[in-house]
Amino acid sequence: MTHFKDIFKKSFLEGYASSEITTSTIIVALAIACALALYIFFVYRVMTRKTFYSKNFNISLAGITVITAALILTMQSSVVLSLGMVGALSIVRFRTAIKDPMDLMFLFWSISVGIICGAGMAEVAVILSLAITVGVMILDHLPVAKAPMILVVNASSPDAEEAVCKAVETLVKHYTVKSRNMTAASLDLVLELRTDKGSDLVKSVMSAQGVTSASLLSHDGEVTF
Questions:
Q1: Per residue, what are the HEC states of 91-129?
Q2: 120's torsion region: left (phi>0), alpha (psi -120 to 50) or beta?
Q3: Which residues neighbour 76 within 8 Å (Cβ) at sequence distance 6 or greater?
Q4: 99-155, pLDDT tens digit by residue?
Q5: Is the model more confident about 38 or about 207?
Q6: Do 189 and 214 touch, CB atoms closer than 8 A?
Q7: Are 60 and 98 in contact (CB under 8 A)?
Q8: What b/e sequence results for 86-114 when a residue is b if at least 16 CB atoms lie within 10 Å of its CB, and e otherwise?
Q9: What's the pTM value of the predicted model, to 2 decimals?
Q10: How far apart are CA 39 and CA 129, in angstroms?
């Protein structure tokens, strides 16, 4: 009975024993993680089309990759230590909102590459990075419907809407009046439309009776079908 307890105790403790990770393994894993982190950094910088590019967020993507790889390497050294890290990380709360879905994709990409490199499967991380880059570039260049334009018209007469619509109909087949703001002596209209003759359209609207100003705006937001 005592012999059985000793065997069980020995096998139980061996399950929590540290597995040796050499210094060369750590250096290689972190070096590959750093290289892929720089790759993600440059890909994000090239592909993003934000008006306000966040360099700090891009740097954090690279840092997350290396930090995650280091955490996975540390967890491999001891089961007890890995359980402690899981418990410590579970209380961390990130309150920064991700406004762009592309940012969310890059964030998961950075974390995934860090986990894969830390697990010692650098080939998978390299193939994953190349596949994501090619896939995003192909999808980004697929033809989609043209984003609508916004026409803002200011008129000095509340009855100018009919004249504005007739001027728009000469160059645009389909349009939608999105907003009307009327006072006793003025009218503000916002129209959504698609056109390839923006200059001619603005001139046509300006020639309408009562129109004081007209602005045609384009945007890179979501496309409506």
A1: CCCCCCCCCCHHHHHHHHHHHHHHHHHHCCCHHHHHHHH
A2: left
A3: 19, 21, 82, 118, 119
A4: 777 888 998 999 899 989 888 888 999 999 999 999 988 887 776 666 678 889 998
A5: 38
A6: no
A7: no
A8: eeeeeeeeeeeeeeeeebeebbebbebbb
A9: 0.62
A10: 8
For 124-149, letters b (16+ CB in 10 Å) and e give ebbebbeebbeebeeeeeeeeeeebb
Higher pLDDT, 32 or 182: 32
Q: Which of 154, 146, 145, 153 is nearest to 201 (CA)?
A: 153
Share of the chain above pLDDT 90, in %: 18
Q: Facing residues of 181 across strands? A: 188
Could you tell me how many helices (H) and strands (E) the chain has, helices first?
A: 8, 4
User: Confidence band (pLDDT; 50, 70, 90) for 96?
Assistant: low
- What stretches of 85-218 adopt beta strand conformation (E)? 149-155, 175-182, 187-193, 211-217
Which residue's entry shows tokens 């096998």? 11
For residues 176 and 182, give the distance between their C-alpha atoms in angstroms, rounded to a whole number: 17
Rounded Cα distance between 118 and 191, Å, is 54
pLDDT tens digit sequence for 70-91 = 888 887 766 656 666 665 556 5
* Cβ contacts of 191 within 8 Å, gap of 6 or more: 150, 151, 153, 168, 175, 176, 177, 178
Cα–Cα distance measured from residue 12 to residue 91, given in angstroms and rounded to the nearest whole number: 29
Q: What is the DSSP letter of 184?
A: S
Side-chain-side CA neighbours of residue 30 (13 Å): 13
Largest CA distance in the chain: 104
